[in-house]
Amino acid sequence: MEEAPQREAPTGRMSPSGLPPSTDDTTTTTTTTTSTTSTTTTTTTATTTTTAVASPPSTPTLIDSAQFHIHSPSSTGFFLSSNPSLVPDRRPARGHEGAFVHPASFLRPRGLSHPMPPAQPERAIDREERRALRAIRNFLKVRTSYDVLPLSFRLIIFDTSLSVKESLNILIQNGIVSAPLWDSKSSTFAGLLTTSDYINVIQYYFQNPAALNQIDQFRLDSLREVEKALGVAPPETISIDPERPLYEACRRMLESRARRIPLVTHDSQTDRALVLSVVTQYRILKFVAVNVSDTQKLRKPLGELLLGSYHNLATASMDTPVIDVIHILVERSISSVPILNSEGVVYNVFEAVDVITLIKGGVYDDLSLTVGEALKKRSPDFPGIYTCSLNDGLDTIFDTIRKSRVHRLVVVDDNFRLKGVLTLSDILQYILLEGETDEFS
């Protein structure tokens, strides 16, 4: 079979300032497209009522169906009898005599006189997609979470007695956005500190400005109190043993809606928990993109898969106050908000990690600045945003993930107008769950 030509991943990276590239500019932006198909299985349970008739014990006897005849004396019912004297005459009906009705007439379903249309043959692109997904899942099932880790890495763990301000400075100095928490009093793993925790702190002090003077004494072990005050559900503390299959780690992240999962093992001598590292969705998908060549067979366009979010999207403009965007992030439980102009053209994306940059000086209450002003505070080496179209397939998206650090893709049309948002969670869910019911058929 002749192999289909490889499609180049569209490019077109947005500038840190937020303006889309002009048509005569030679700078390009990495554009990738992803599509997803959602399969919903509805199970209908039929209830059967059985009436038991008491009879003396005897040896079961097979009953010949010819001994039973159905007589319909009226239009309102029928009776069943094995007494030959009650069997109606089978001679042709005369006058008002009821015609003999064969029992099979009552068993023949109605409304099914038309034959079912033949099943459509599977398309080659569907067959290749299904085989590629199976190959990826098999790969994830034989690899462990430990295999994803690089040969050399650094792990920073925060003690829960650390202040929020100190933890923020450490994150910024080391260029990270999350860290495992450790309770030294009980010598136990205490969860994961993420940007969502800092956003909750911002909301808390925005609603309680009188408590702002105590921010320097606010410690990480008090984060649960902030969540209770805001009515926010505490994040689920999930972890996995590094020797467990990578497939299991992915399923746990999807079930808890977490974007990263700590690898926690136990000391053989003391049986105490040991935090080994943290695995993110991006690291897992890049691991797949680098090691599984079958990702190049995922050629079904996003427009067919409808992978991602395309309706009721949360958006903002350059003039929107940052605090309003923060409220949107919390209410929608999302990690980014596309920034559009009046015509719906994508200018930029405000991400949850941008909040850390804004409050790195300890300013939690002065968030009345606009999104445009906030985006100017980004690092000069900010890579921009990644876009894709509905005509792109996951093959080009995996190619982009393999080459660049991508956390989401904005789906746009030819005029750069917003169509949808594709997250790494969407991609991970697709490669793990799409068509899973027929996996062993």
What characteristics describe this protein?
three-stranded mixed sheet, alpha+beta, CBS-domain, protein kinase regulator activity, 441 residues, 28% helix, transferase, CBS_dom_sf
Topology:
Elements: E1 11-12, E2 29-30, E3 69-74, E4 77-81, H1 104-107, H2 124-142, E5 158-159, H3 164-174, E6 179-183, E7 188-193, H4 195-207, H5 223-230, H6 246-256, E8 260-266, E9 273-280, H7 281-291, H8 302-305, H9 322-332, E10 336-340, E11 346-351, H10 354-358, H11 371-375, E12 387-388, H12 394-403, E13 408-412, E14 418-423, H13 424-433
Parallel strand pairs: 5-6, 12-13
Antiparallel strand pairs: 1-2, 3-4, 6-7, 8-9, 10-11, 13-14
Helix pairs in contact: 4-5, 4-9, 6-13, 7-12
Structure summary:
The protein has 441 residues and is an alpha+beta fold. It has 13 helices and 14 strands. Among the domains are: 11-36 and 294-426, CBS-domain (Roll), CATH 3.10.580.10; 139-281, CBS-domain (Roll).
